[in-house]
Structure formats: structure tokens, C-alpha cells
Amino acid sequence: MSGFSISPTRHAGTHRRLRLRATAVFGLAVLGILFVGMLLAPVLAPFDPNAQDVSRRLIGPFKAGSPHLLGTDHVGRDVLSRMIYGARVAWMIGATVVLLSGMLGVILGLLSGYFGGMVDDIITWLANVELAFPFILLAIVVAASLGAGLGNLILVLTIVSWVTYARVVRGEALVQREQEFVQAARALGAGSLRIILRHILPNVLTPVIVIATFEFSRMIISEAALSFLGLGVQPTVPSWGSMLADGRQYLATAWWVATFPGIGITVTVLAINLVGDWLRDQMDPRQNA
After folding, report:
1. Which of 50, 173, 197, 256 has its CA 20 to 30 A from that of 267?
2. Looking at the domain 20-50+61-288, which fold is it?
3. Cα gap 84→153, rounded to integer Å
4. Domain regions of the chain by residue span
5. How does pLDDT run across 269-283, given as a tens digit for each residue?
6. Which runs of consecutive H residues, i.e. helices, occur in 40-161?
7. Longest dimension (CA), the chain
8. Whole-prediction pTM value?
9. What is the per-residue pLDDT across 8-25, written as a single tens digit (0 to 9) for each?
């Protein structure tokens, strides 16, 4: 007997409720455009994002006859090209961190909630220690210790973001392990690994999916914040955060250098949050009551 079985009537009712609303359509459309742009960055970018031409520095955006649609920065690099490649960095880091931290958090949360005892005490203690520090402060400390770099940035964000998943999964696992279908599986001789993977894990995935959506936007902001502080990706890698850092000195004379990456971060995070809000409402059990 599996705890993941869904009756046809409930399944059909769930699908009827999975309808898009205007905000979700907007969010999905924006994310779709950004995703295509990320995949086709080498084709869509009009210039090499790192190509410097000091003679064309700080050219304003939307200038008639200028090949630089969004202008150039303080060393003559094309802002549009760096925006496109910066979206690739943001998406890659966000997706990778969500995947890694989600897997780590789910594994630890399942172990903590199912086994309890000393295992639960150790994992809960680790989570409480991490929660004692503000997220961004802990990320800055770890990033400063490991140094800048794409791999280190992914590792830093993974280390400081697994707790959110673990706490939710632990709570769900504590409930699921007492359910009748789990007790029946245990009575029939099923091992702990089989029970966790077949009966408990499928029933905790819904909140994990919702959390992952919102964590995706938080990781994009965190990457931008760390890159802004010089603790993110290498300077040669185009990043929205590093573009903001480069443009802060020119806000009065060349507003576009910092404004466009700021808009990129804002629109991307807004789109992800709109989609996440829709998913949360659709997957809320109370909506299926």
C-alpha cells in the first residue's frame, strides 16, 4: 500500500484547479524569454561581453547610429551583451544551488524526521547553529574564506541555504512516519530505505517544490549581492551583481551602467516570485478540500 496513491476523482479535480492566472502567465513569459536568451547568449549577444574599447566608453543607450543598444560601460564593454551573459550566470548559479541545497536539505530532513533520536539531535543542532547567523552575513564570511569564483560561490550558497528545506521536510517526515501506510509497510518487513524513498519522500515533495521556487529568486539576489561585494564570480565573468558594482561610481553621469542590470534582477526575481506564488496556491491542500 503506497502513501502516494491519488484517487482519480481527486487527481482530476487537482488538474482542473491548475489554471493559470494573469500574474503567473506574465511570470512564465518573462522566465521563458530569459531562459531562451540564456541558452542562445552567444547568438543573441552583439559583442563579446568582455571586449574593451576605451575609445567608446560610457556611450549612452538608444543612441541613433550606435551599435550599442543599451550603451557601454566605463571601459567600453557592451552593456546589452553583458546583460545577456549575466542572465546565464544568474540562472546557472540559481538552478545549481537550488538543486544541490534542495537535495542536501531533503536528505537531512528525511533522516532527521524518520529516525529521530541522536540523528535528529545532530541535524537539528547543525540547523540551529546556521540559523543563528543572518543568511547574507554567513554567506559573506564563508565566501571571504573560500575566495571568489563560480565554484566557490555555488558551494557557499549551498552551504547556507539547505536548512530551509531540511526544516520543512523534517516536519513532514515526522507526520508521515506515523501514518498507517508507513506502519503497514514496516509490518510487512519493508526496510527503512524503502519506506523513506517509496512512501515518505513522494509525500514531502510538494512543499519542497514551492520552497525551491522562492529559493531560486533568493539565490539570484544573493549571487548579485556577493558579486557586488567582490566575493562572487571572477571579474572576467559577466554578472549582474558585478555590473552594479561597476556602475555605482557613475550613477550621476552614466546611469545606464547600473540601471539595466538592476532592472534585470528586479524583473527576474518578480517573475519567479509570481510563479512561486501561483504554485503555492495551487499546491495548498486547503485548495483541494
Report:
1. 50
2. MetI-like fold (1.10.3720)
3. 20
4. 20-50+61-288
5. 999 999 988 888 887
6. 41-44, 79-115, 117-131, 135-146, 150-159
7. 77
8. 0.82
9. 443 444 444 456 678 889
